[in-house]
């Protein structure tokens, strides 16, 4: 709230100042303002992943940028998509038709993101997807009007599976959510495990969503596999991990590999249940000095440590504003090209660049959840084991089905 | 019965009164149509289209609950079936015009309605609701699993296309009038059904089924037909919605949607023709306004509170209460 007031005050001040000295660059901004829309799940399952905290991150970026670009004030509006594709698409359509919103950020649930990017493509808008997992967003659903920032399922499956096999976890049992997303993730993992010399010894598919994982965890225990891969998401992953912990799965020598799990999930589950879990992340707040510094500022504002998605929202908003400044216009096509021209190197992204399919590739990290003994604080949750270089982490363009990529 | 004895006593006076009532009703509908025609110039057309789609859905649901006394908790299945079928056809066969896609979606939803209906109308009350919910969940899982729906990601990129092959629907205004025409068709069909002898029998069954049966009516057949009409119109609403938003997603198939339509109908006034329209308007507007306000996180809570207040203090819904007031003071 305080931040909203601050941004408001800042934008009013800037508006007043700019009315005194109208710069020439301002003429190139549509209606003399740069308008950003923040669309995310503010009240449901993904609230802690992005939600109001993501909005705060975006407001921090705008405030840090100075509240205006080349004299044009930056205005943020936000809306709750309630994880519904039609609500999301509708909101964005309204933003573009009625409010001339220049860029849409946030975007968490994959169904919402895909729906929104179709609207953006049709209306020549610009979107930055930060929260979604689906790698199809820059594959078969790619458009020239959006960028996918933080992560997707490809590096999550690829990074985790490869690293785990290399560390000796060569026999896998897959616990898969029985719908398109789970099947895709399972296929990705299977491919990587087999290519790295590992073996899938078994698997079970559970309905989506499932509350009682006991029988599946017992099957996993009985399989004798060293690694139990969790190809599911959200509440399913949380339930599976809780059950595995209750059945003493990790204590009996088997290890869980989470393919889609976030800092807020680990924080909610507690270290007792999640200890030693291997996962791939796009960013971690305690990664290095610049990350810690930014996260501390965020923590003072919100009271929680940022997830990679929230950090990514700051990073992407900042990069967008820099591109608008450099291009001298908020025209989506020009800004999109300018964003791709500038490398991304900040507290969030290392070796980052935007590919022609809209994928922002950057270094990813293999992390392991600490044990309760190792952890020194409430948010001291991960240990970063290794870095997956940007160029290896994401789906290579040669395998892309994106219409913008010539293969 | 009352009107019959009255009309025998003083036929001309009653006829005159009925005529005047009919005239007033027609004028009222005409006024509503005029409002509908100018609305897109006053409000955002896409928002209005959403209201109309949900209003049609709620009207279809109301036909069943309000006039046949059957509380279906599975109407989302028809909305989603209409939506997915239309979306799939239009997205995969670019030559297909939107009206054909909508007709196909509606037909399939109607067929599904026959299937649902035959199974579920054998039970009444809470059992009927549970049977419909159970079958709707089956349909939901089918949509989660079926490859053509895109599962969690939904079905995207449905073209709006050209109506009858030559009227482009890409402008929101053209699309709005198309949706408005569909809504009027659906509403007129319901209005006609309710005021027909068939509708009278439905009401009789709602009030006292054994008595209607003893008078020689085949109650099950009447209920089945009402169920099928309702399912078909819900499918029509879903198909139209898909063309408007150019997507179909699992939200439409989820049981939350079946709950939302109950909320809309009860809030507006169950068993009144205009109630569902009013209810859909209120719920959709609230969602729309609240989502972009600082109270955004509280949409569900606020809707819940409104629902509780409505059920506790004005059970016949907004239109129902207005109707009561009108009857008390002006008749």
UniProtKB/TrEMBL annotation, chain A:
UniProt keyword Phosphoprotein, yes or no: no
InterPro entries reported in the protein's UniProt record: BCAA_transport, Leu-bd, Peripla_BP_I
Record flagged with keyword Cell membrane: no
Sorted UniProt keywords: Signal
Lineage: superkingdom: Bacteria
Leucine-binding protein domain location: 33-370
CDD domains per record: PBP1_SBP-like
Residues in the signal sequence: 1-27
Family note: Belongs to the leucine-binding protein family.
Name used for this protein in its record: ABC transporter substrate-binding protein
Organism in which the protein naturally occurs: Vreelandella maris
